[in-house]
Design a protein that fits this description.
Elements: H1 11-22, H2 39-54, H3 59-71, E1 76-77, H4 89-92, H5 104-126, H6 132-157, H7 179-196, H8 210-223, H9 227-240, E2 263-267, H10 281-284, E3 311-312, H11 314-322, H12 326-332, E4 333-335, E5 361-363, H13 370-374, E6 387-391, H14 392-406, H15 410-420, H16 431-446, H17 452-458, H18 468-472, H19 478-485, H20 517-522
Antiparallel strand pairs: 1-3, 2-6, 4-5
Length: 533
C-alpha cells in the first residue's frame, strides 16, 4: 500500500486552504465546482493570495519572521531587552535547532499553506468561464505569489518539496527537491506570470504586474549567480518599466507616498478606523517606552510606543558614517535624542526607554510621523505605512553586480544610486575593491528591507571565495569582534542582550535554517534535515 505522508505542508494546510477563503463569503452552498465562476470570485481569490503573501497588517505569521531574519545579521539587534525574546533569539544568536526555531516555524507553514491555495486557484481558474484576458490576470498574479513563497523558502531552508497541483490526503508523498529544482520552478512561474500579465494594466495600487515578475526574476537570477540573466531582467525593468528613482530617498517610506514612482511591489496598508488594515511593522519595530513629556506638545496623542524589536546596530551606523552618507543614515537610523529625520519640528529629540533598547537606535524607515499619529483615533492595527518589497534602486544594484561579473560598467549604476543621496561618484576602483563597494551600496541602500541575510549568505568574499557571512559571524568574525571591543555608549551599557551577537554562528550549518522537526517526524523520515542540525 502506498505510504501516505501526513505533514504540516499538506494535510493540515490542505484541509484549511480552500475552505478558509470560500467560507468567508458563503452564498448557499459553495464548493470548488461552483466557485471561480465570475470575475469577482477570481479576483477575490487572487487578492486573498496576495494578502497572505504580504500580510502587512498581521505581525506573527510573516512580519515577525522577516524581522527575525534582519536580527540575524550585522544590521540589527533583537533590541527589546525588557520582554521575552524566545521568538527571535534562536536565529539572532545562532542557537536555532529543529525543535527550537522560534517564529521561523510560522513562515515555513504559512508559505506552504499559500502554495497549496495557489495551486487550487490556478487549477480552477484555468477551467472557469472567464475570458482568456481575465484568466491571465488572476492566474498571473497567483503564479507570482507561488513563486515568491518558494523564493523565500529556498533562501531560508534550502531545497523544499515542490508541487504545482492541489494535493489530497491520498497523494501526500512529498520529499525535498534540490535548491536548483526549486529555483527552476520559481523561474518557470515568474516567466509564465510575466507572459500572462503582459497586457494587464500596470496600476500602482498594490496589484501584482509583469514588472514585479521581471524584477523578482532579476533577483533570483542574481542569487543563483546567473549574471547574464540578472543583467537582462534588471535592465528590462530599468529601461522599459514605468518606474523612476524618488528624488528624495526619505520619500520611499513616506506614509503619504504609498505606491510611489520607485515602487515595484508594496504591501498595502490603511488607516481606516473601523477596520484593522494598518501595517504591523511600525508597532513591532517601533520605539519602546515613548513618553508624552519627550515631545514638544506634551500630548499623549503624539505617543506611539512600539514593541522595540529589530534595532539598528552601531556597526551599520558606522557603515554610513564611513561614506559620509548623511541622507541614507538619517533615513534609516534615528539615534536616541536625535531629531526624527523629516519630522524635526514635531519630534526634535526622539527619546524612548534606554532600559528596554539595546542600541539606543530605532529604524527610521518604520517610523510613523507625529502628524499621522495625531490623525488616528486608533493606532494599533491602523498604522498607514506601506512596506516596499521590490523597488527600482535594487534593480540598479542588481545590474551593477551583474555587470561586474560580465565585464560591464558596474560603476555607472552604483553612482546613479549614490547621486540620489548627494554622494560623490566612485571612480578608479575595480576588482575586489569594486565588488566590495557594490556589496556595501546594497547594505546602505536596502537596510531593513528584507535582503541583508540573503545577501551575506550568497555574496562571496573576493579574498576567500567564501560567503560573506562567514567573515562577519563566528568567534573570529569581524562583526563579533567589533562588538566585543566596542565602546558604543548605548550597546555596551545594556547587556541584557548579549554583546557577543553572532559568536555561535557555524558555517557548517547556519547558511540555512533547519527544517522544522515536526515536518520530519510527520513525514516518517522522508523529509531529510539540513546538514549540521
Amino acid at each position: 500500500m502506498k505510504k501516505i505522508i501526513v505533514s504540516i505542508i499538506a494535510f493540515s494546510l490542505f484541509s484549511a486552504s480552500c475552505s478558509d477563503f470560500i467560507e468567508k463569503d458563503q452564498r448557499g452552498t459553495q464548493t470548488l465546482e461552483n466557485y471561480f465562476q465570475t470575475v469577482q470570485e477570481c479576483e477575490n481569490y487572487a487578492n486573498e493570495l496576495t494578502q497572505r503573501l504580504l500580510l502587512a497588517k498581521e505581525w506573527w505569521t510573516l512580519t515577525a519572521p522577516r524581522v527575525t531574519n534582519e536580527m540575524s545579521t550585522d544590521d540589527a539587534w533583537m533590541g527589546n531587552t525588557g520582554q521575552d525574546n524566545s521568538a527571535h533569539r534562536p536565529c539572532s544568536q545562532y542557537i536555532i535547532t529543529p525543535d527550537n526555531m522560534g517564529d521561523m516555524n510560522s513562515i515555513y507553514t504559512a508559505h506552504f499553506y499559500t502554495i497549496q491555495s495557489a495551486n487550487v486557484g490556478l487549477e480552477r481558474m484555468a477551467v472557469s468561464p472567464l475570458t482568456d484576458a481575465q484568466k491571465n490576470q488572476y492566474m498571473g498574479e497567483s503564479l507570482f505569489v507561488r513563486a515568491y513563497c518558494y523564493y523565500e523558502l529556498v533562501n531560508l531552508f534550502g531545497g523544499v518539496p515542490v508541487y504545482t497541483k492541489s494535493l489530497g490526503t491520498g497523494d501526500l508523498t512529498l520529499s525535498r527537491n534540490t535548491a536548483a529544482e526549486v529555483y527552476t520552478q520559481i523561474e518557470t512561474d515568474l516567466k509564465d506570470a510575466a507572459a500572462k500579465l503582459e497586457s494587464a494594466p500596470v496600476a500602482r495600487n498594490g496589484r501584482i504586474n509583469k514588472w514585479a515578475a521581471y524584477a523578482l526574476l532579476a533577483r533570483v537570477s542574481l542569487f543563483q549567480e546567473k549574471w547574464a540573466e540578472a543583467k537582462t531582467y534588471s535592465n528590462k525593468v530599468i529601461t522599459e518599466g514605468p518606474f523612476q528613482l524618488e528624488s528624495d530617498f526619505l520619500n520611499i517610506w513616506n506614509v503619504n507616498n504609498h505606491n510611489g514612482i520607485e515602487s515595484i511591489l508594496e504591501a498595502q496598508s490603511s488607516s481606516v478606523q473601523d477596520k484593522s488594515l494598518g501595517a504591523a511593522l511600525p508597532t513591532l519595530s517601533g520605539a519602546r517606552g515613548e513618553d508624552k513629556k519627550n515631545f514638544p506638545s506634551n500630548d499623549a496623542a503624539d505617543v506611539l510606543d512600539g514593541w522595540g524589536w529589530c534595532m539598528p546596530t552601531s556597526d551599520l551606523e558606522n557603515a554610513y558614517l564611513s561614506e559620509n552618507d548623511v541622507i541614507r543614515r538619517r533615513s534609516t537610523i534615528t539615534k536616541w535624542g536625535e531629531a526624527a529625520y523629516g519630522d524635526e519640528t514635531l519630534n526634535p529629540t526622539h527619546k524612548f526607554s534606554l532600559n528596554d533598547n539595546k542600541s539606543g537606535r530605532i529604524c527610521r524607515k518604520y517610523y510613523i510621523p507625529i502628524a499621522t499619529r495625531r490623525s488616528l483615533d486608533k493606532k494599533d492595527g491602523h498604522l498607514p505605512l506601506n512596506i516596499p518589497l521590490i523597488r527600482l534602486a535594487e534593480m540598479y544594484l542588481t545590474r551593477a553586480e551583474a555587470n561586474y561579473h560580465t565585464g560591464g560598467d558596474a560603476l555607472a549604476d552604483i553612482n546613479i544610486i549614490r547621486a540620489r543621496v548627494k554622494l560623490d561618484p566612485k571612480t578608479g576602483i575595480s576588482g575586489p575593491t569594486l565588488l566590495r563597494q557594490i556589496y556595501k551600496e546594497r547594505r546602505l541602500e536596502l537596510a531593513f528591507e528584507g535582503l541583508r541575510l540573503f545577501d551575506i549568505r550568497r555574496e562571496k568574499d573576493p579574498t576567500t571565495g567564501r560567503p560573506v557571512i562567514e567573515s562577519l559571524m563566528g568567534p573570529n568574525g569581524t562583526f563579533v569582534q567589533y562588538n566585543l571591543s566596542s565602546t558604543d555608549p548605548y550597546e555596551t551599557t545594556n547587556l541584557r542582550e548579549s554583546q557577543d551577537k553572532g559568536i555561535n554562528f557555524n558555517p557548517a550549518k547556519n547558511l540555512l535554517w533547519p527544517i522544522p522537526q515536526l515536518e520530519i517526524d510527520l513525514s516518517g523520515g522522508v523529509i531529510k534535515q539540513n546538514p549540521g542540525y
